[in-house]
Amino acid sequence: MSNKTYKGKKVAFFTLGCKLNFAETSALARQFEELGFERVRYKDVADVYVVNSCSVTAESDKKSRNMIRGAIRRNPHALMIVTGCYAQLKSEEIALLKGVDYILGSAEKMNMIRYVDNLKKSEEPVVAISGFRKIEKFFPAYSFGDRTRSFLKVQDGCNYFCTYCTIPYARGKSRNDTIANTVAKAGEVVQKGAKEIILTGVNIGDYGRSTGESFIGLLKALDDVKGLERIRISSVEPNLLTDEIIEFVASSKHYMPHFHIPLQSGSNEVLALMKRKYKRELFAERVEKIRSLLPDAFIGVDVIAGTNGETDAFFLDTYNFIRDLDISQLHAFPYSERPGTQALKIPHVVPVPVRKERVQRLIELSERKHRLFCERFLGETRPVLFESEKKQDAISGWTDNYIRVTTDWDKNLANKIYHAKLESIDETGSIKGKIITG
Ligand code: SF4
């Protein structure tokens, strides 16, 4: 890589999908800026466009293609680089799009600046994709945009191969950096001014797989990072969310009372078809354990409706199981067939309209649960980390237990934690707060 500078050159990024992708785009953008590039918005004219794609559903594939075409129309002379899960899984589809220069798989994503050497467009797209079993290197990354909250990548890849999922094929085997290096990255983020870090990855509970360390070990080490006020754990598999982790979060200095746990189905028959590593009884135990130590905790749950094999009876099982769970909110998704997954071989395909109808019922259930959860805290005072954005003369932020609170705009509140009394809730579920003390 020559030590050229690209002063006056513009780069623009478009990121689809998960928090991990946003952390990686943020890290890539910092590499480009170190080379002298100016970062511009994706809808502006740039010399280099980067799409960090997603392939979790057919819809995300389509959106990735639209974003690529849009940039090529905006500046046909610009260098067009495509990376991310769609690139790793379907490079041949992307190669058909005229104007694409580089298609970089997961193993090459973070080496991107090596490919921009002379900004010269290539006749044919250069495809740098290695087989998923060869995706082994861990690249650290963190997002740093609004100065308040940062997604810190602590783990990548997955060895679980749930039957409906393509992520192991897109991101490779489970791996991570050492606890020491991860703590150093957290320190870097704090130095930049972030008050809250969200631990992000593909299967973060599996942290330690490539270094012989443990997730609980990482959690304890991060709790001692100087100046770090808040830590949130993004999503942890139920079978990896141990009593020790829940007890540690309950007794820790900086971990927020907030858990996100993928359930995917409330029917043991469907969980078996998905090759998930637990039964619903374990999931209910995890929720009870959290509630016993952290009664105010926010518990978010992922569920997929309409996977192959999910009969009406199994869906009703799921619905009733979730109805009776003391959780705060659901993220409900319709099943989307993914090429190369085992789920395609499972008989009994659920028609798409039925999948959507099931998701709608779950969303309505979630709205009722979320409103009940928020109403529980009306009249209470909770710590809120206010973000810096001014919207309609108001400023908002998240409480410790992940309730969105809005109050009158005051620039002195930005990127600070203030105690706010949760005063009222409007028809959209948005909570109005009154500042009590610093
Ligand atoms: S745990 Fe299952 S659903 Fe999650 S990324 Fe791994 S294979 Fe996919």
How does this model look, in words?
- There is one protein chain.
- It is globular and about 60 Å long.
- It has three domains: 10-130, Methylthiotransferase, N-terminal domain (Rossmann fold); 149-374, tm_1862 like domain (pyruvate-formate lyase- activating enzyme), CATH 3.80.30.20; 381-435, Beta Barrel (OB fold (Dihydrolipoamide Acetyltransferase, E2P)).
- The chain has 438 residues and is an alpha/beta fold.
- The strands form five sheets. A six-stranded parallel sheet has the order 2-1-3-4-5-6, with helices on both faces.
- α6 runs parallel beside α7 (215-222).
- β1, α1 (19-34) and β2 form a beta-alpha-beta unit.
- Helix content is 31%, strand content 23%.
- 44% of the residues are buried.
- The mean pLDDT is 95.
- Residues 158, 160-162, 165, 167-168, 202-203, 237 line the site of iron/sulfur cluster (SF4).
Task: Considering the chains and any ligands shown, give keywords for the structure.
pyruvate-formate lyase- activating enzyme, five-stranded mixed β-barrel, Rossmann fold, 3 domains, binds iron/sulfur cluster, alpha/beta, 438 residues, six-stranded parallel β-sheet, OB fold (Dihydrolipoamide Acetyltransferase, E2P)
How do the helices and strands line up, and which of them pair or pack?
Layout: E1 10-15, H1 19-34, E2 38-40, E3 48-53, H2 58-74, E4 79-84, H3 85-89, H4 91-95, E5 102-104, E6 126-128, E7 149-153, E8 155-156, H5 167-171, E9 175-176, H6 179-191, E10 196-200, H7 215-222, E11 230-233, H8 243-251, E12 258-264, H9 268-273, H10 280-293, E13 298-305, H11 312-323, E14 329-334, H12 352-375, E15 381-386, E16 394-399, E17 404-408, E18 417-425, E19 431-437
Helix pairs in contact: 6-7, 8-10
Bound molecules: iron/sulfur cluster.
